Amino acid sequence: MAHAAVRRSRGCEALRGEGAVDEWVISLLENSPHSLKSLRMISCERITDRLSNSIPWFYKLEELEISNCDPGAFSSTCIVVGNSCPNMKRFRLSSPRFYKRRRRRIDCEVEGITRMRGLRSLQLFAQTISTDGLSSILNSCVQLESLDIRHCFNIEMEEEMVAN
């Protein structure tokens, strides 16, 4: 159903796919007129590196949500979004649960997020971001108005951060 909807919606500006976005849908979006401003993918488990490879085609994106999807592609996607989407205003990255594993690097998403200079709203749910990573984001994203960092257990809020 999502495939047919994307095929028929030439030039769509927003797509919210809950469990329906896969690599094929992303390739359809990639080959359609590049007017996509909002892409929200929720519980889309069949997305891998295709998303990182396709993001440069979505350079008009202002909003990107990746929630409850495979966390393996998060860091590479963040870097590509930071480099390719200068209009990004709202970014949401949510894992289904906090992963406390050594194989998953701490702060791997920070480099990409710090490149999203025009960001106004950031939600990181169950990410392995540290206090230093959060500080880097706050110093880089000076237009940030809304910050949601629930279940980011590597962050210790210092008095200076709370005061700002």
In CATH, the architecture is Alpha-Beta Horseshoe
State which percent range the strand residues make up: 15-25%
Instruction: Tell me the radius of gyration.
Output: 16 Å
Helix content: 25-40%
InterPro entries: LRR_dom_sf (IPR032675)
Organism: Brachypodium distachyon
Protein name: F-box domain-containing protein
Could you give a short description of this structure?
The chain is α/β, with parallel strands linked by helices and 164 residues long.
Give a description of the structure.
The protein is of the alpha/beta class and 164 residues long. The chain has a single domain (2-163), classed as Ribonuclease Inhibitor (Leucine-rich repeat, LRR (right-handed beta-alpha superhelix)), CATH 3.80.10.10. It is 30% helix and 17% strand. It is built from 7 helices and 6 strands, in the order H-E-H-E-H-E-H-E-H-E-H-E-H. The chain has helices at residues 2-8, 23-30, 50-54, 74-84, 110-113, 131-140, 159-163; strands at 14-18, 38-42, 63-67, 90-94, 121-125, 146-148. It has a 6-stranded parallel beta sheet, with no helix packed on it. Strand 2, helix 3 and strand 3 form a beta-alpha-beta unit. Helix 1 packs parallel to helix 2. The longest helix is centred in the middle third of the chain and has 11 residues, at 74-84. It is globular and about 50 Å long. This is F-box domain-containing protein. InterPro entries: LRR_dom_sf.
